[in-house]
Design a protein that fits this description.
By secondary structure, this protein is mainly beta. It has one helix spanning about 50, and strands at about 5-15, 25, 40-45, 60-65, 80-85, 95-100, 100-110, 115, 125, 135-145. The protein is globular.
């Protein structure tokens, strides 16, 4: 049986570019109303790599493909930050290799069984309890998508 709703394609390892200064992180939250000057409220510089990658040696990026995880905020084309050092606990969103194909799903442990569950009611959850060729690659810690 093949899961093909939302796949993940490897983009690469998390590597910090040397000397990247980061972008300003403003202290005050952004309001969706009247604009106000915020330059005086700069908290610090924000480097997205430092923010999203906690363990560089264990982190890699994937591109999501499909619509089975839209309920979790993961959309077709999103960049997923995956950390292999984070435990794949119950209810975590994981990258799993099933029969050689990567998929992104929510890991569920229920009544002695283990499932990979989509976040879209159009797709069923997949019982992996006794599957010989299932390997959890890592835990998704961030999903980046364009607006």
């Amino acid at each position: 049986m093949s899961i093909k709703e939302t796949r993940a394609v490897i983009i690469g390892q998390a590597a910090q570019p040397d000397g990247s200064p980061g972008c300003p992180l403003y202290l005050s939250p952004v309001k969706a109303g009247f604009p106000s000057p915020a330059e005086e409220y700069v908290e610090q510089a924000l480097n997205l790599h430092s923010y999203a990658v906690k363990n560089e040696a264990a982190t890699f990026f994937l591109r999501a493909s499909g619509d089975s995880m839209t309920g979790a905020g993961i959309f077709d084309g999103d960049i997923l930050v995956v950390d292999r050092s984070v435990p794949a606990d119950h209810k975590r969103i994981v990258i799993a290799a099933i029969d050689g194909e990567l998929t992104v799903k929510r890991l569920l442990r229920q009544n002695g069984s283990v499932y990979l569950a989509p976040e879209n009611p159009d797709y069923p959850k997949f019982d992996i309890t006794n599957r010989e060729y299932v390997h959890i690659w890592g835990v998704v810690t961030f999903a980046l998508h364009k607006l």
